[in-house]
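hiii so my PI (J.) wants the whole complex modelled not just the main chain, which honestly fair. so below is everything: two entries, each one labled with what it is. i double checked the lines twice but i was tired so who knows lol
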Amino acid sequence: MSRVHSPIQYYNLFKSFMIVFVVQAVVFFLAPFIPFLFDTMLRFLLLSINLIVSAVLGWPLYKRIYHMTFTYDNRGFTLKKGKKEENSYKWNAFSKVSLIRTEYGDFSVRLYRNEEDFFDIPASKLKLNPSDFRFEAMQLVSARKNEK
Amino acid sequence: MTKVERSLMAGRGRWVADFTESFRNYTVNDIEFDAFIRGNTRVKGFLLSRLFSFLTNPNYSVGCFFFSTDSVKGFDRKHLIRLITAAKSGMKANEMQWAWLFLLGSKNIETLKKYVEGVEDQTVGIALLDINSKNIAHNKSYLGRQATRYIRV
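here's the output for the full assembly
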């Protein structure tokens, strides 16, 4: 039975919101109707519109670029990031498992094919317990390796 | 083990090096260490800390090998020497400049303490972590003395 992890990453959601917000803010500041912005009411209205549009467009942007879905079962796993990037592997493609701390303080589980070639599963970002998931991955890798 | 691993990777260990990667059941020369944690003395950070680290810290690869002595019946000096030899091989394979060997145990601590304190080898820092009393004994090398400063049971 496959398990799916697809939590909302609030940092990336906020980043998407801010991208839309900043783009709109730049457009407003460069727009030819800038003299009207001296009206306080109009400024508030534009800010409100900007915030609403950011919220409405930020979510699809987040889903399109950042949202991660991790699906795994005994045979393999699929890590999907956004709409385009999708990586699928079998556990038996890997020989070694380690736990790594990234420079941002997140933990990932690193799966080695050989010393140079590896694939990282961002356990912290997927709200998986990095230590527990590392042991689970070790079991899956060794079980599949023995079946090879 | 998980607690020690965490303290090295995200706690006090960061004062010595940036320990970024941890392996469990790590095998060197037919000896299976319970854990192997590796890193670098040059800390990666943001702008100022990265620059400070670049200017002040040496660029050394470092690693810690962990072994539970309770898993071996009648752990003696010969076992310790085999572990030190394996740690040195691991050090060479990972091109490390500094390495520590941590022994975790709760049985025959006084005997083990004598073995560890009697090790003259200067290339590997060796420390014995008593799980019950939380005391730490180390060998006479510089690295051994340093180990007590950043490891907690």
